[in-house]
Amino acid sequence: MPDDTKPRQPPEPQPRSVPPRPRVKLTIDDREVEVDAGTNLLEAARAIGVQIPHYCYHPRLSITASCRMCLVEASNSPKPVPACQMPATECLVVQTRSAIVKEAQRATLEFLLLNHPVDCAVCDQAGECKLQDYYQEHDAQPSRLAGPKIQKEKRRVLGPLVTLDQERCILCTRCVRFMREVAGEPQLGVFGRGSHEAIDTFPDKPLDSNYAGNTVDLCPVGALTNSDFRFTARAFFLTATPSVCTGCARGCSVWLDHFNGETYRYRPRENVAVNGPWMCDVGRLSYKPLVHDR
Ligand code: SF4
Ligand code: SF4
Ligand code: FES
Hints:
Blueprint lengths: L22 E6 L2 E6 L4 H7 L23 E4 L6 E2 L10 E3 L3 H15 L16 H9 L17 E2 L4 E3 L9 H9 L5 E4 L6 E4 L11 H6 L5 E3 L12 E6 L8 E7 L2 E7 L12 H4 L2 H6 L2
Parallel strand pairs: 1-5
Antiparallel strand pairs: 1-2, 3-4, 3-5, 6-7, 7-10, 8-9, 11-12, 12-13
Bound molecules: iron/sulfur cluster (SF4) (2 copies) and FE2/S2 (inorganic) cluster.
One iron/sulfur cluster binds next to helix 3.
């Protein structure tokens, strides 16, 4: 007999089965690829080893499609479309290396470099800079600017760990979106208009989040620099060894960058089970006592 003295329990929630996303077949640079419907063209191309240049796109951030570096030709559009934003659809035909795409990439780089200082010789990012890399790959032409370049602040201290060179910034807004969407501390914004637009903090509010250092890793150029690392070593001399952060017991995965027996920095190493692609600033600086106070 059922025991009526016990309160009735609500039924156990049943695990909801997520229906698999439909798959679509499309053609990218004359090669067929099958991906989940809705996958963007940039990721679909990556799946078959085709790298589409990009600045503002990052798989962990919202998509703004603002830099226009990833323009490709797609059979459902009369004009080039941003590959980071365009979803893959059945029977779509995509060209990533046509003459129209190459001209779009060249023109985008020309605009990005219009007021860029090109001070690579003293830039911390030289050797790991997407502006340098893509310029060599997709533009490689001298500037056609006749007048002087617009000058902005070269050394703007945003907070304890991050220094900004506003002239080098290409306004991809990765740093702004990271602080808002991942760190949950919207401490950065875009200020000004047109060629005078610049990244900055809000009045009297420094970039002091414990996750601010991730913006330096996300910045595709040498605009945001790690104040602890800047001017201490050239990035291309460093060797990256996989390691584990010494900051706390969580044990985030890191790259330990070293040269000549000396450690210069920790950078986050992607580990979906622990830290994703990020790390905190306390951990980022925890290499110092190991190196200097032994
Ligand atoms: S951001 Fe890149 S292109 Fe600009 S100065 Fe630095 S290394 Fe050179
Ligand atoms: S500072 Fe770097 S990450 Fe931020 S908008 Fe400029 S280029 Fe992009
Ligand atoms: S990466 Fe697609 S528009 Fe910037």
